[in-house]
Amino acid sequence: MNIFIAGRTQRKNSSRIWGVLEDGLLVRVLDENGSDHPQDSSLNPGEVYGAEFMAEPNASRPHLDQIRVRKLSYASALPAGFSVADFLLHTAQTQISRGAPENLFGGHLQWSFSGTGYIGENTGLPDRSLELWQSDRPLSLTRFDDRIYFVYHTSPEDGYYFPYTGQEKAPASIPEKTLIRLQLSEWTRHPQSGEKRCELELADFFL
Q1: CA pseudo-torsion sign 34, 36, 40, 46
Q2: Radius of gyration of the chain (CA)
Q3: Do the domains 2-86 and 95-206 sit in the same CATH topology, yes or no?
Q4: Closest CA to 198 of 85, 122, 98
Q5: CA 5 to CA 19: how far, in whole Å?
Q6: What per-residue confidence (pLDDT) applies to 4?
């Protein structure tokens, strides 16, 4: 099956790569050992590879969209003038959420008092950790406690806060209907409640 490489994020010692399968499923692409790829990986956004892979055997909800790739063979690249966003919006059979944040990830998200989203171990789990979204409002940049957030305002003072974990420089705002990739983080235990949670993050945008 072919896989389209849609994005990569440089981590401290690795590259986190995600893509789209022929059937439109968004996937996090792991190596054959179930790890992220090295920083000097040759996989780049816009490339298509023939792939032999298996579902990550140790994955559990919501991270069922992880695959271990055993073999990759380069097949093609996007034609000149055709962007990753063009492919995702017009060619890939990929589901895209649109509108307000309440319905993201099948409505399973909970929202903290500070406005950030998460899923909790006892409040219903989606079957995926990656989602594409087109907001019906612009998102504005803000900073708090040395973290960058994009805010979907519901009023001048309130809104939904999306922590930004991407590697591209954060713009002052993201226009409405921009294609955005959201992800759910790995499980961590909330320091106050003790509940295990996956935090909602804004990982990519395609201006």
Answers
A1: positive
A2: 17
A3: yes
A4: 122
A5: 4
A6: 97
Structure tokens at 205: 């945008």
Q: How many Å apart are CA 15 and CA 128, to the nearest integer?
A: 20
Note the CATH number of domain 2-86: 2.40.50
Report residue 141: phi and psi, to 5°: -80, 140
> Quick one: 111 exposed, middle or buried, by C-beta within 10 A (0-12, 13-18, 19+)?
middle
> CATH class for domain 95-206?
mainly beta
CA distance 70 to 52: 5
Q: For the residues of 38-49, what is the DSSP string, one character each?
A: PTT-S--TTEEE
Q: What b-and-e string marks burial along 80-101, b requiring 16 or more CB atoms within 10 Å of the CB?
A: eeeebbebbeeebebeebeeeb
Q: What is the pLDDT of residues 127-181, one digit of tens each?
A: 999 999 999 999 999 999 899 999 999 999 899 999 999 989 999 999 999 999 9
Measured between alpha carbons, how far is 56 from 37 in angstroms, rounded to an integer? 15
Q: Where are the domains of the chain?
A: 2-86, 95-206
In this prediction the pTM is: 0.94
